Amino acid sequence: MKLRNGMLSSALALATTAALSVPAAANTPPDVMVMAWNIDAISTFDPAQVGEVVTIELLTNTCDRLMEYDPEDETNIIPGLAEDYEVSDDGRTITFRMREGLTFPSGNPATAQEMAWSLHRVLQIGLGASAGLTEYGFTAENAAERITAPDDTTLVMEFDQAYPSSLVLQAIAAYPVAILLDRETVMANEVNGDLGNQYLGTHTECVGPYRLARWNPGEVVILERNDDYWGEAPALKTILVRHVAEAATQRLMLTSGDIDVARDLTPEDIADVSQMEGIEVATALKPQLTYLALNNEFGPFTDPRARLALRYLLDYDAMEQSFLRGIGTIRQSPVQLGAFGALSEEEGRPFSLDVERARELLAEAGVEPGTRISLILGTHPYSMPIGQHFQENAAEAGLTIAVERMANAQLFARVRGREFEMAVMSWQTSVGDAHGMASRQIYNPDNAAEAKLTQYPSWRSAYFSEEYNQRVLEALLEPDTDTREELYRQLQLDQMQEGPQVFMFQTTQNVAHRAELQGWTFHGFKAFYNLASK
After folding, report:
1. Where is the Solute-binding protein family domain (predicted)?
2. What would the DSSP string read from start to end of 236-286?
3. Which residues, listed in sequence order, are joined to residue 240 by a DSSP beta bridge?
């Protein structure tokens, strides 16, 4: 679909002609979708470890989960590997009935026993992705008892408490932790008891429409169609994702026909190409928030007044009208728009640029003028403009901000290791419920450095509050819907005043593609490569 001009500034729209033509181009092959994307954040394809948005999108187009997101309605969960499910009367047990006759690409049978093992494996490896199970009461020690497969098509999950079933279906059943792995093939490639973690870094052994054929870090990812897939076969044989970090290069490749899809264009690029015949732009509001991550163990940020001061050092209106135009909606709450329990757009945006107020708060927190703070950021097009914008405003409040740009993989490693003072980061939840963000941005089950809870932004920022932990759990388990919604409302209002991060905007993702590519489908929670064709 065409991106409506209303989403772009009048200045940008006037800068384009009404109907430009795309230059004559040598088309990509008819059975291949070629995509340009900044994919330098990829570090592994193991479902027990992945946490990056890019990798999750690729993996969810390669490996089916128990349940899937409806491509036409992101609020609806539909059958995947499981044909249906049943929730017990007490709400503590969910029984999934899996499809019969599923097989892995190796030819091995894909049964409920392999699904149970795959879930056990996530917990046994205990890396970041295990948080998707441990926060609902599962552990490596109780998994064998609580996640069982009494026969080839029945998977039973017994929870410690009655969590909202709609939330569990999103957070577990439709998430990569519920990817069905080929146990025989994975264990045949085990190294030193790693349960195949090293092998799955560069392989996919699952049931799905595509398989990972190649990954050259910093260069390319190639997915090949699985011709024995149980569902409807994708029209495209190959998905080729080229690592292209620069938006200008992506635009040139798109208009010249070297690629079918560009994923990281700037607002100016989107304004231009949306007017060109032969190119279409699709847009979706993602459940992803971008924020200034603050290391709460670093001197100034131990005081909530210093953290609050930083919220007054951004000109949100100016950001939205310039480098965020068309790619971001200002959001200062820790819960994304569209989620159950989220504040309204107006209520979730209380801050504006106020250098004098920031100075007052910094003084109250005992932060001396001239204090130097390191700000690290990655290669996304908006990261450096944010860094420079904040640096200039902070200087007026007496802070010296040292900005350092680096590859996304390096940025993530630094933040996950708590080796930072401040960073421009993004976090995307997998659920349309306030608990999705609250359980990661606010709740922290163990703040010890050795816990290494890298998939908790709260842990990365060394933020721990027993009070807020209890409030997050209270909201999660509240059975009355209206009361639960109000608990989340107050939680957000309080966190915007004293929380560990400075939330800035929610991502609006624009995908520009050539008109020859039909059926490009995506929403906040997934892109559906299998629905595309030429």
Report:
1. 77-440
2. -SEEEEEE---HHHHHHHHHHTS-SEES---HHHHHHHTTEETEEEEEEEE
3. 34, 222
The one-character DSSP state at 530 is G
Q: What is the mean pLDDT of the chain?
A: 93
Instruction: Name the residue type at position 126.
Output: G
Q: What is the pLDDT of residues 154-199, one digit of tens each?
A: 999 999 999 999 999 999 999 999 999 999 999 999 999 999 999 9
What pLDDT, on the 0 to 100 scale, is given for residue 381?
Answer: 85
**For tokens 């390669």, what's the residue?**
62
**pLDDT of 116-133, one tens digit each?**
999 999 999 999 899 899
Q: Tell me: the pLDDT tens digits for 28-53?
A: 999 999 999 999 999 999 999 998 88
Cβ contacts of residue 176 below 8 Å, gap of 6+? Answer: 47, 50, 56, 59, 60, 63, 65, 129
Q: Identify whether the C-beta of residue 361 lies closer than 8 Å to the C-beta of residue 307.
A: no
What are 38's two structure tokens?
A: 């900044």
Confidence (pLDDT) at 128: 83
CB 358, CB 397: distance < 8 Å: yes
Residues 6+ apart with CB under 8 A from 277: 19, 20, 21, 22
CA distances in angstroms from 138 to 119, 127, 328, 358, listed in the order given: 10, 14, 36, 43
Nearby residues of 117 by Cβ (< 8 Å), 6 or more positions away? 181, 183
* pTM of the model as a whole: 0.81
Contact 411, 377 (CB under 8 A): yes
Residues with Cβ within 8 Å of 450's Cβ and at least 6 positions away in sequence, in order, are none
pLDDT surpassing 70 at residue 9: no
Q: Which residues pair with 294 in a beta bridge?
A: 422
Res 326: pLDDT: 85
Distance CA 56, CA 138 (A): 22
In angstroms, the CA 180 to CA 223 distance is 18
Residues, the chain, total?
Answer: 534
Number of Cβ within a 10 Å radius of residue 391: 17
15: pLDDT strictly greater than 70: no
Nearest to 342 by CA among 8, 69, 136, 75: 75
